[in-house]
Hints:
By secondary structure, chain A is α+β, with helices and mostly antiparallel strands. Chain A has helices spanning 16-36, 70-77, 123-134, 171-175, 185-190, 246-255, 266-269, 303-312, 315-323, 352-359, 376-389, 401-409, 427-435, 449-459, 464-481, and strands at residues 47-52, 82-84, 90-92, 95-101, 104-109, 149-156, 159-164, 203-209, 213-218, 237-242, 260-261, 278-281, 286-293, 327-329, 364-371, 392-399, 415-422, 484-486, 488-490, 494-497, 500-501, 504-505, 511-512, 517-518. Chain B is mainly α.
Amino acid sequence: MATPSSMPPALLSRRALLGGAVATLTAVGLTACGDTGERGGGKRGGTLTVGFDNEPTTLDPALSSAISSDRSVLNLFYDTLLRQERDGSFVPALAEKWTVDGTTVTFTLREGVRFHDGTPFDAEAAAFNLRRVIDPATKSTKAGALKKLAAADAVDPRTLKLTLRAADPLLLVQLAHEPGMMASPTAVKAGDYGRKPVGTGPFVFDAWRSKVQLSGKRNTAYWRRAADGGALPRLDQVVFRFVTDTKVLRAEVTTGGVQLVRALPPEEFKQLAGNRQIVLDDIGVRRSYYVALNVTRAPFDDPKVREAFAMAVDRTGVGKAAAGGEFDLAPSFATSKDWFYDPSITPPPFDPAKAKAALGGTPVPITVVARRRAPDPTIAELLQSQLTAAGFAPKVEVLEAQTQLDRMRKQDFDATLLVIDIPRLDPSLSFDPYFASKGSNNWSGLTDTTLDGLLEKAVGSDDRAVRRQAYVDVQRRIVGENYWIFLHQPKSPLIHSAKLSGIVLNVDGQWRLDEAELAS
Amino acid sequence: MATDTTTATTREPRRPVLSRLLRDRRARFALPVLAAVTLAAAASPLLDTRSRATDTDRLLSGPGAAHPLGTDELGRDVLARIVDGAGVTVVVATVAVGAALVLGTLLGLFAGYRGGWLDALLMRAVDGLLAFPLLVLALTVVAALGPGLRNALIAIAVVTTPRFARVVRGEVLSLRTREWVSAAHIVGVPTWALLRRHLLPHLAGTLGVFAALQASTAIIAEASLSFLGLGVQPPQASWGAMVAAGTDHLDASWSLSVFPGLAILLTIAAFNLLADALRDALDAHRPDLDPGR
Lengths: 520, 293
């Protein structure tokens, strides 16, 4: 048994109380594991403890609102019809093969797969899941992703037929991620599904205590085999501990309390650089900090005030204060390696004097909401100082994650500071949710028909050159109108214990842990 | 000059308490420190811009010529921010403790003098509040009201009031059986006037000492709340919040939490020593053994 022998020591931190509770819980969890997890030998088995800063609000993939980070958790419990590898290619998963014929897509499903609750996985169950996503009554956050899907029908128990309104170049990408995750119809119908997920995935949902931890146990009947034919998953148990304090996360990964961390800010991971027990792997993922301006009300319904905001912000200064030297500056949600990146798109240059003149003397009061998680409050405070110098009267509210999201949904803010992880599976997933009028995360409250048209155009074609031009135009429009101010892009390496191997990454860097193993 | 006709009983100097206080070594340390904090608080509006001016080219620099105590994680001048934070500290020591003093004294006076069910009711409520550790209660109040300086002040006043009420009631209980109180009562002095004119002056010394002690407790409470991010909100500086920011960058800058921490330490020590000195100076029976004390 490769239970990590180093229990997390009770850390002296501002969250010592919470830490104590977590340590106790983990102790209980490990003891239980020692009793039952005796199967397997060699590299198999063990409990992987993950430090995770972004607790999901629901484990229902159809309702998950965090665009990407929830998937690291959802991948434990769910499978999709097909998988997309990091290089972009598609491989079979719950579907053994598929054919795309214009507006008809036919999947041949794997036989003998059952959900964790025993419900058989068949074409009817798959159709149920897809219909549920596109049913307006579900209010699925993924409905937009499958908006071209007209119908999903079970031809026979092994054959699923999708009928599309129009050819959709992104359909397979979407089906390989949250919109295509297969949940047990029995469990969904039973209610309170977001807290009691049942899929076909490598791990069976065990327990979830909000703000503390979430755990999954090995699915002994998992259908997938490793390349060498060995049974998957290799781990007995995966525990996600929800820790938002990055200092605590860094300390935990140093002492071995957790073996994998989602994201650490540069000032923390720089301190891990010399440690041989820890692997820092730059997998090309960047975090993109942004400020979204609420255009549905004064003062940011006025393009001049938005421009003044953009001129007030010193992006290099923000990067230096919040990320040390470990950041890039980019025009938008594009990293310099992305095919839709265009360095000629530039926001208005930093010019507080001009901003002040544009605002006309009287300080403009605005409310800025930010999240209580380092380094966001620091960035907010710096923005507050820069904005004050440029003639705004900013009030900063530092909120817990859920409170901030609620405020953003209700459009009860003037400017909101947040971050997403990029790249995403496809640029449409970076731009559509945030900038389309009907986007699920349209924080700014945009109703820009020009922008909607460009976004439509960008997903209407298979041609990379056409799509690139459309996305460059999209970015030019967003930056030109100053709907959003894109700040710095700190680097976000994959950080894990040297004992942990076999992490498989999605295109956007989210984890699959079915092949992960812990050396003893 | 205020003339004082009631205490001319001894051959002591005209202001015995003050002169004894000024001869006390503890007070000689405490008073200048508190004067400096008060001055800093008075000067803080002048340094407002300086304490909020960020400079991302000069992050976390140590003490130097341009910034005597260095700069913080956003490049702001630490000295200016400590001066800015003194304003908060003085507000806490005066407003929050002052409010608790007034409220607590009123409650204690009435409870102690009236006695009966009013006393029982008030004192059980006070006992209930005193049963909680001060900071836990303050956290609860702030959690209910939301973070911010005003709510922190309310929280501190709420948790400090019962302490004053307890002390005042105790004193009143021992005083109200004295002959001169009974005499005043018998000749028909109204209750309110009796409390104000006959009892309150006797409480002044005790209250002064106790207020000084509570001021130090209140400053710690505010610093703790701000350390946790529940007290003073940015960009207003607060010593507690500065210490918190310093702990986040301890590996990059040793000085960031040390100086605000020292400011807290000195101010609290000053209030405690002042309380000690004041108590001794007020004690008329205490033989003045050592003039240099």
